[in-house]
Write a structure and sequence with these properties.
Layout (H helix, E strand, L loop, with lengths): L2 H18 L18 H160 L3 E5 L11 H12 L12 E7 L12 E6 L2 H13 L2 E3 L2 E7 L3 H8 L2 H9 L5 E3 L3 E6 L2 E5 L2 H10 L1 H7 L4
Antiparallel strand pairs: 1-3, 1-5, 2-3, 4-5, 6-7, 7-8
Helix pairs in contact: 7-8
Length: 365
């Protein structure tokens, strides 16, 4: 056992004694002056010290190893962090540069916007003034339009009033016209009736050729017709009194091939009626040609009578004994009684009520 080991052992025991008796410790003793120890105790003490040292050193070594590992980890981490921070710093510098350039651009845009705002404020002021002037002009126009509208309303009311008055006058005028029309129709009917009555002594001879006029007078021809067809009407002296006789119309139309009618006015109404009744019983003839003798009537009355022609012929075919009464009325015999109709419309309404008769006539209204 060397001196160095002994000093360590002594130091160990000395520490123990200082712990138990601190007032008796002394710092001036050397390892060579320590009391004598037994070798076994020394060995045991050495082993114990070794174990304690090994345990302490192992723990310290583990702690140091852990600290070393931690330091390595932290060092690596720091290195990585520095690299990342270096990259971030580069990126941040780039971002900083970009932001600085963007700030410059924004400052320029801001200045440009300020200039534009100034111009807009100026233009807005000008436009506002223009708008105010336009508003004033529009207000004047609106005022003028309102005045014209009021004027138009007044004129419209006047027109409506005048129109109402005109309508009232129109109603009155219509009433007057209706009254005048009734009066006119009455007067026309009266005039037609007077004309027909003025013709009551007249007979109309239809279908007599005008070639006979060249050889004989119409008076002589009429005397021969009466003598040939109804000799019993001839008066005792053998001649019928005729006031006047002539063709109608007075001038012949070359486009019309049929002969003109003859109108004869008799001096005696009864003689005229006898001749007319004889002509209704049988057709008259002259030199072998058939002629017709009818009552001479006004043109309007003849037109109204002609409207019955088709119905009249059909009624004759059916044996209904049709007659044309004065002035232009149709009379038929049906179902044991005689029916009279003033107009053709009345006859058509009558046919609608008589289906069996309507089928036989088959006429369009």
């Amino acid at each position: 056992m060397n001196k160095k080991m002994k000093r360590m052992i002594y130091s160990f025991y000395a520490e123990k004694e200082q712990v138990s008796k601190p007032e008796e410790t002394s710092n001036s003793k050397n390892a060579s002056d320590c009391p004598p120890l037994h070798d076994a105790l020394i060995e045991e003490t050495i082993k114990s010290l070794k174990r304690e040292l090994e345990d302490k050193w192992g723990k310290e070594r583990e702690a140091l190893q852990e600290s070393n590992n931690f330091l390595k980890y932290e060092l690596e981490k720091l290195k990585n962090s520095q690299e990342v921070q270096g990259n971030k710093i580069g990126e941040l510098e780039k971002i900083k540069n970009s932001l600085e350039s963007r700030i410059c651009e924004l400052e320029k845009e801001n200045n440009s916007l300020k200039n534009k705002i100034s111009e807009m404020e100026k233009n807005s002021t000008d436009q506002n003034n223009t708008f105010k002037n336009s508003i004033g002009h529009i207000q004047k126009e609106v005022k003028k339009a309102n005045e014209e509208n009021n004027s138009l309303k007044i004129r419209t009311e006047q027109i409506e009033t005048n129109d109402s008055l005109r309508q009232q006058e129109s109603v009155k005028q219509k009433q007057k016209n209706d009254k005048l029309e009734k009066t006119m129709n009455y007067l026309l009917a009266k005039t037609t009736d007077l004309e027909n009555r003025s013709r009551r002594d007249n007979l109309r001879i239809i279908g007599l050729s005008e070639n006979y006029d060249e050889k004989k007078s119409l008076d002589t021809i009429l005397q021969e017709i009466i003598k040939e067809n109804c000799p019993d009407v001839i008066e005792s002296e053998g001649k019928i009194g005729i006031e006047r006789i002539h063709r109608t119309p007075s001038e012949r139309n070359p486009k019309i091939k049929t002969p003109r009618n003859i109108v004869a006015k008799f001096q005696n109404y009864q003689i005229k009626e006898k001749i007319l009744q004889a002509a209704k019983k049988k057709p008259f003839k002259y030199r072998g040609a058939t002629i017709r003798i009818t009552q001479d009537l006004a043109a309007s009355t003849l037109k109204e009578r002609r409207a019955w022609n088709m119905i009249f012929r059909k009624a004759q075919e059916l044996g209904m004994q049709p007659r044309i009464n004065y002035p232009a009325k149709l009379s038929i015999f049906f179902q044991g009684r005689r029916w009279t109709f003033n107009e053709t419309n009345e006859f058509h309404l009558f046919l609608k009520k008589k289906p069996e008769l309507n089928k036989k006539f088959d006429l369009q209204p």
